[in-house]
């Protein structure tokens, strides 16, 4: 097999499971949770390490920020044989119950971005795979971490969220943000919708766990609002979830 154009990987890794952070700087940190981690390659925003869990190869590959690069990464990893994708990233809380340091396990995503519109009509929902999501929930419970499950908002413009009044379309951004709040959306981030939709169309499994950095709604109401940049909890939960998934998949083959 020729190496894929963007991620610069072929199928020699033999991995069916991949952990997808956005930030290339987090890849090595995540890989250290695996057995026998080693650097595999780097091209553009895609930095890749590989290691072992329960005797199976597991990739860790960054996707960069936003839907287009996430979609490309998932598409090309799928061609090389990956069938299970878990995004571990960060988010900003929206629901008042979501505090900095909490985990958010996304069951679905609001498709307020452009990438997925070039895959399926907007009426098609962006939802996570049930088995992978349940594995994340069980791992979070086992570690007794605070977590929330539900819908997240997926956007393309970071500053459209944080400075909507500066934008010519600010009236629409503000109205939609208030609609998401009224619908009890948990948090906002930039990659989940592309991950869910691309995986769905390929017939792969995907899930998403997010470390909450802070919550602008809590800030605006003068509530306690810690800023937490440590992503270790989400990584630990992801590692344990994949370990259980591998063991389950191995038992089903017996």
Task: Provide a compact summary of the structure.
It contains eight helices and ten strands. By secondary structure, the chain is an alpha/beta fold.
Structure, described:
The chain is an alpha/beta fold and 254 residues long. It has one domain (11-253): Nucleoside phosphorylase domain (Rossmann fold), CATH 3.40.50.1580. The chain has eight helices and ten strands. It has a five-stranded mixed beta barrel. Helix 3 crosses helix 8. The longest helix is centred in the C-terminal third of the chain and has 22 residues, at 232-253. It is globular, with a radius of gyration of 18 Å. The mean pLDDT is 97.
Give the C-alpha Rg: 18 Å
Oligomer: single chain
Strand content: 25-35%
Q: Whole-number average pLDDT? A: 97
Count of spatially separate domains: 1
> Could you describe the largest sheet, including whether it forms a barrel?
5 strands, mixed, barrel
* The CATH fourth-level homologous superfamily: Nucleoside phosphorylase domain
Question: Helicity range of the residues?
Answer: 25-40%
Query: What order do the helices and strands follow?
Result: EHEEEHEEEHEHHEHEHH
User: Low-confidence parts, pLDDT < 50 over ≥5 residues?
Assistant: none
CATH topology: Rossmann fold
Principal-axes shape call: globular
**Strand pairing plus helix content: what structural class?**
alpha/beta
- CATH classification class: Alpha Beta
Give the beta-strand count.
10
How are the strands ordered across the major sheet?
5-9-8-6-10
Euclidean distance between termini CA atoms? 30 Å
User: Helix tally?
Assistant: 8
